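Hi,

Apologies if this is the wrong queue. I'm a grad student, and the batch job for WGS project CCBQ000000000 data, contig 00015 from Kluyveromyces dobzhanskii CBS 2104 produced an output file that my downstream script rejects. I'm not sure whether the problem is my script or the file. Here is the sequence I used:
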Amino acid sequence: MKAAVFSDFDGTITLEDSNDYLTDNYGFGKEERLKVFAGVLNGSKPFRDGFTAMLDSVHKPLDECIERLLAHIKLDPGFVETAEWCAANGVPLVVISSGMKPIIEALIGKLVGAERAKELGIAVIANEVAVDEKTGEWHIVYRDDTPHGHDKAQTIAECKKRFAADKYFYCGDGVSDLTAARECDVLFAREGCDLVPYCDQHEIPYILFNSFTEIKERIAQDLQ
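Support response: The file is valid. Your script probably expects a header line. Output copied below for reference.
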C-alpha cells in the first residue's frame, strides 16, 4: 500500500466545527470557549476537561442539536473529490475525530450521502454519545481514559498496523489534533486555525491548506 490518509472531521473536513457551533450558540459562548482552547494550547488544561465543559454547557436534546447542525454545517468543497481519488487509488481514508460519532455520521449522511460514503470506504473513529431515554439528557462517551478523551496518536498507531503503507498523511485544524501532529509523515494544517501556531511553537513541520483539493493534489504528487 502506497499511502493512507487520516483526517480530523470538525473544522477540517467541514468548514466549521460542529462542537464550536453548539457551544457558541447554545452553550456558554465563544468567549468562554476560546479561554478553554487557550488552556489546552498552553498545556494548563487537558482537552478532555475543556471539551466536557463545552458540551455540558449545551442544554438541548441531541436530536435538536443534530437538526441545527445539519442546517448549518458545510463540507469542504474539495473533500468528496479527495475521497473519490483515494478510493480510486487504493488509499484508505479514515476520519479520526474527538467529536461524537452520531453527529459525524449524520453530517456525512447529509453532506456526502450515507451510501456514497460507504462506497468510498470512509471509516469513522470517534467518541460515542449516551442519551438518557427518560430525561433526554446526553453526554459524550470518550474512547479512552487519557486526558485527551480520544488519544489520536494511539488510534493512528492502531491504524498503521491495519494499513501498512509507505507514507501516512494527517489532516487537521485545531486543539484536538495536537497529539496527532507528530504521528504521520506529512501533516496538513488548515490555514488560520489553532494547529498552525502550535506547530510553529513546537517546530513541527506542516503544509498549510485551505481546501481538500490542495491536499489531494499534494498527495497525488508525493505518490508519483
